[in-house]
Design a protein that fits this description.
Layout (H helix, E strand, L loop, with lengths): L1 H20 L22 E5 L12 E11 L4 E6 L12 E5 L4 E7 L17 E4 L4 E10 L10 E2 L4 E4 L1
Antiparallel strand pairs: 1-2, 2-7, 3-6, 3-9, 4-5, 4-8, 5-7
Length: 165
């Protein structure tokens, strides 16, 4: 009996010594890095509206239209307008073509005073801007001059809007 008690005491002492003397294990750490990249490409889109002059009775008619532009934030752009599809048209004297023949002259401008022609030569008669990532509306100021004598009918033209960025 003495041996079995002695063994128990030795085992208990040994166990308590091992438990008391064992230090907690320290966790080791190391670091690395994760490289994250993205490329944002410059992009733009443009849509023109209709300029509806209404009825023309040989007196001056002014009307406005709209060009909607969306460009990536920080992207510089220019907007140019061509001469249109009318025969003999230029960017300073555009021509609508009548449904029964004939033409009706008109002009498009970049300013409300209708003094700055809107053409297609970058740096001369185009409109410059910088995109902000949101919709930007540019106003086109149109004018049909007075004292024209066109044939009766419906007159139309299509002007191409060119956005350069």
């Amino acid at each position: 009996m003495f041996t079995s008690t002695k063994n128990r005491v030795i085992c208990a002492t040994l166990a308590s010594t091992l438990l008391a003397s064992s230090a907690p294990a320290l966790a080791a750490t190391t670091t690395g890095s994760l490289v994250v990249t993205a490329t944002v490409l410059a992009s733009c889109s443009v849509v023109g509206s209709t300029i509806a002059f209404g009825n023309y009775t040989s007196t001056q008619v002014d009307q406005t239209g709209n060009i909607a532009v969306v460009c990536t934030n920080g992207t510089s752009y220019t907007i140019g307008l061509d001469a249109g599809a009318g025969t003999g048209a230029t960017t300073s004297v555009r021509k609508m073509t009548g449904s029964l023949g004939g033409t009706l002259n008109y002009a498009l401008y970049r300013d409300s005073g209708r003094t700055n022609n809107w053409g297609s030569t970058i740096g001369t008669d185009t409109q410059a801007g910088t995109g902000n990532g949101l919709l930007q509306n540019l106003t086109v100021y149109g004018r049909i001059a007075s004292a024209q004598t066109p044939l009766a009918g419906v007159y139309t033209d299509t002007v191409t809007v060119t956005l350069t960025y």
